[in-house]
Write a structure and sequence with these properties.
With 545 residues, the protein is α+β, with helices and mostly antiparallel strands. It has 3 domains: 143 residues, Jelly Rolls (Sandwich), CATH 2.60.120; 141 residues, Beta-Lactamase (2-Layer Sandwich); 216 residues, 2-Layer Sandwich (Heat Shock Protein 90), CATH 3.30.565. Helices cover 47% and strands 25% of the residues. It has a 6-stranded antiparallel beta sheet with strand order 11-10-9-14-13-12, with helices on both faces. A 5-stranded mixed beta sheet has the order 16-18-19-21-20, covered by helices on one side. Strands 1-8-3-6 form a 4-stranded antiparallel beta sheet. Strand 18 and strand 19 form a beta hairpin. The protein starts with a helix and ends with a strand.
């Protein structure tokens, strides 16, 4: 606590009691009452009666007002030597603001009538008070102008954000091509928040992977990584947003990619892309903001962009499905017409072949007639199968059959076709056992795979077919020495209308193959290397003895 002499010297140095003599201040101190206020204490509330005036001897007092929105706004912060609560004493109205000690403070209080008497009797104090009020008014004016300027800047930032979001929305809704759309979304994200580069991953919940397409030279290459692996995988798994201002100071960052590419990652924003249901459908990974580091404003913008991007992606998926369905419908109509038109002539050919077989008496002619009947049935069934596929019909004639006999007959027929194209068939049918399957459909699966292998070897080569038993399945491997297929084709090979390396065909062959294998509760795998060849492996359940 200050002594009387220290208190007098302190008050003489304040604006309110400037130019007063030691004796005058000593007399004033007799009227003041000293009060101690701990930090956080409310000195007075707004809209209360102004019965006292306070002079701050030590500490600090915040003068504030609560807005109609419930927010407390600081009007001024007063410190030692300044007066608090004087306006109510001057105009006789209730207090217009609240006063709260923000530090442990000592205040000198003076009753209202004593303060009025002081101003009337001491013109120096009255003049000093006018100067103090004038300074506060100027300070208040500056505060108001500063806050208006801050609000103006904040409004301009929000308007700019809204404008960028609208422009980005226009761009990403300009296409229904998914590959093009993903590139537009990424470009909009990087340009809008001034990132140097980035990657947009989509979530594949079936395979539990993230996938994206990136440029490698002039080609677009698909990359995949498991959900949960790396920063992008972690974000996809948890939905957490990661802001890294200094990547090399953060243990979560793996610098190995920088070492391989020569690119220096300074800072990073990695955050989920969510649809309207707040489900994570992708991950943004954005690198190196042009000026400074990514901040919460960037996070807010990308989150808003995600809502528009997810709708555009949904629309692209729906458009692809509609196109595929329309094409399937068109193929179905075509197949229906073909079946109607060829039913009679194919039936006639079949009858003629049967008649030729009965009348010829020649063993070679009988074999040719049987082959004609077989090929007519195969053609009709194949056309019917396309029709069934386009209509979503799935009907199978399962029978328990000795697999070795069926496979041997298939390979004998395939061999004749391959020989015409300078392709050697290497046969290793080792499995002997009973398999419950639809013979006609499965034979067409084998023909289809062999036909694709033939097309992949236009200059000749070899096709190796092996059958063995493995973990309760018969495993059938078709390995060719053809051109192989790129990763993108391999991942889409079972999609309808997906073709690669040939001008003929409907593009439904491998889709039908996959459907038949699924109907048999089997599985199919593809392993292919560009320039070296392809292996297609089929697994079919073996009947247990």
């Amino acid at each position: 606590m200050s002594t009387k002499d220290e208190r007098i010297r302190n008050l003489q140095s304040t604006a309110l009691f400037h130019a007063l003599s030691t004796g005058e201040i000593s007399e004033l101190l007799k009227q003041f009452k000293e009060i101690n206020f701990p930090a956080g204490t409310l000195v007075f509330e707004a809209c209360t009666s102004g019965d006292k005036v306070y002079v701050i001897e030590e500490g600090a007092v915040r003068v504030s007002r609560v807005t109609t929105f419930g927010e407390e706004t600081t009007l001024d912060t007063l410190r030692a030597g300044e007066i608090v609560g004087e306006l109510s004493s001057l105009d006789g109205q209730s207090r217009s603001a609240r006063a709260t000690c923000i530090e442990d403070s000592i205040l000198l209080s003076l009753e209202k009538f004593e303060f009025e008497s002081l101003l009337i009797s001491n013109h120096k104090v009255a003049f000093n008070l006018l100067g103090e009020l004038s300074a506060r008014i100027r300070k208040a004016d500056d505060n108001i102008v500063e806050r208006l300027e801050e609000q103006r800047r904040a409004i301009e930032v929000r308007f700019d954000k809204l404008h960028r979001l609208m422009e980005a929305s226009k761009i990403i809704n300009s296409t229904l091509d998914l590959d093009e759309l993903l590139e537009l979304i990424l470009n909009s994200a990087t340009q809008s928040i001034q990132a140097d580069r980035g990657t947009l991953y989509l979530v594949d919940y079936i395979k539990k992977e993230l996938w994206s397409k990136v440029h490698q030279g002039t080609d677009m290459v698909e990359i995949r990584l498991p959900i949960g692996k790396g920063l992008a995988g972690y974000v996809a798994e948890t939905g957490e947003t990661i802001l890294i201002p200094d990547t090399y100071a953060d243990p979560r960052f793996n610098p190995e990619i920088d070492k391989r590419t020569g690119y220096r990652t300074r800072n990073m924003l990695c955050m989920p892309m969510k649809n309207k249901d707040r489900k994570i459908i992708g991950v943004f990974q954005l690198l190196n903001k042009n000026h400074g580091s990514f901040d919460t404003e960037d996070v807010s913008f990308i989150d808003a962009l995600s809502a528009h991007a997810s709708v555009a992606i949904d629309n692209a998926h729906m458009a692809q499905e509609m196109v595929a369905n329309e094409r399937l419908s068109a193929v179905g109509k075509m197949a229906s017409v073909i079946i109607h038109d060829i039913k009679n002539p194919m039936g006639t050919l079949r009858v003629y072949a049967q008649v030729m077989k009965k009348k010829s008496g020649n063993e070679e002619a009988n074999k040719l007639a049987d082959e004609m009947i077989h090929q007519v049935d195969r053609f009709v069934n194949m056309t019917q199968e396309i029709l069934d596929f386009t209509r979503g019909v799935s009907a199978s004639n399962f029978q328990e059959i000795e697999f070795f006999d069926v496979m041997t007959a298939v390979l004998d027929f395939i061999e004749k076709d391959l020989e015409k194209n300078n392709i050697a068939l290497r046969k290793f049918p080792q499995f002997r056992g009973i398999v419950n399957f639809d013979q006609d459909k499965m034979v067409r699966v084998f023909y289809n795979i062999a036909s694709n292998a033939r097309d992949a070897m236009p200059q000749g080569g070899s096709l190796t077919v092996t059958t063995i038993e493995e973990d309760g399945f018969v495993r059938i491997d078709f390995t060719d020495t053809g051109t192989g297929m790129p990763e993108e084709v391999k991942k889409r090979i079972f999609e309808p209308f997906m073709t690669y390396g040939k001008k003929h065909g409907t593009g439904l062959g491998m889709s039908i193959v996959k459907k038949v294998i699924d109907d048999h509760h089997g599985k199919i795998e593809i392993n292919s290397v560009m320039g070296k060849g392809t292996t297609i492996t089929i697994f079919l359940p073996v009947k247990k003895p």
